[in-house]
Amino acid sequence: MDKNRAIKHVFPGGNTTKGFMSFYDNILSQAEANKILIIKGGPGVGKSYFMKKIGDKFLDLGYKLEYHHCSSDNNSLDAIVIVPLKVAILDGTAPHVVDPITPGAVDEILNLGNYWNEEGIKIHKEEIIKTNKEVGRIFNKAYNYLKAAYQIYEAWTNTEKLAFNKGKANLLSDKLIKELFEKYPVSNKPGKARHLFGTAITPAGLTEYLHTIIADSKKIYIIKDSPGASAKELMNKISDEALMRGLYIECYHSPIDVYKIEDIIIPKLDCAISVVNDYHKAKVIPTNIIDLTACLDDSIIKSLKEETIKDKILFEDLMQKAILIIQNAKRFHDKLESYYMPNMDFEKINELMETTSQKILEISKD
Fold this sequence. Notes:
This protein is an alpha/beta fold. The chain has 2 domains: 4-116 and 344-365, no CATH class; 165-295, no CATH class. It has 9 helices and 16 strands. It has helices spanning 47-60, 118-122, 125-160, 166-181, 210-214, 232-244, 298-303, 305-340, 346-365, and strands at residues 7-10, 13-16, 19-22, 35-40, 65-70, 73-82, 87-91, 107-111, 192-197, 199-202, 205-208, 219-224, 248-253, 261-266, 271-276, 288-291.
């Protein structure tokens, strides 16, 4: 098995223009799960390391995995899912606090706080409190910039919309929906949707692993859009039509407009629909292309060009400023981790990894 293709990389939460948004309840549902392991502990105690090491073990055993990355540090994990075993391990600490819903039957807590030297941490009490507050303050500032960026994005959208021919777009939308669903009648049992982020605003900028989500689909529909020729309405229609037909779908949202779905996977149809624009582009080869930007009237868009360019520049400037602030927040978070890491008994944590791995392997024998 190609190990790179065995891992789907996603984001369960995101820094967005609406603040921090979480789809943590979509990592693995209680009804579906065989086991959900919730890791508790402070920053720098090894939660992400713990998940990566167990992920490596099950990858070597040939299992498909999902890596759920942290939007505040995309090299860190918030969760992993061992897909065939229906087992999830996730970080249950702030800002995405998770507590057991079905303790014992589904959920189990792994407390890495059992393996720290409390006296060694207490020495840094004042610095930890001060740094924690600073991390919160900086993230709030970043969210203010992101909210301001969205106001400009909306202004840009409303200006460009003046050139949008809705009738042309309706014809393209109708053709695509008929093509996708002509063999699938409306069902008396509605489908299910899973919601996550495919792209995130991280310290590294706009970050995506979209090819790991999309590339395995036999049919890949690319929808080219722009702020004023948005695919938002069309993607909502596709989602609604799929659910009406009883299909399971995965929806991946935009961190710029969290109510906009930018990627839909429909496993039953073996297809993916992905939006392409300046801020979202999967590295995949499409089988079909639908160009909503062709529905913009050239003569009108030319007359609005000066306005939209200014909007675009201002939007991107505010986005970049927000990213720089998020980078600063990560530096303070790294400082916070430095108070914990030297006070952790990682040998004991490695032993816990082994016993946890064995417990998960027992599920495979059931």
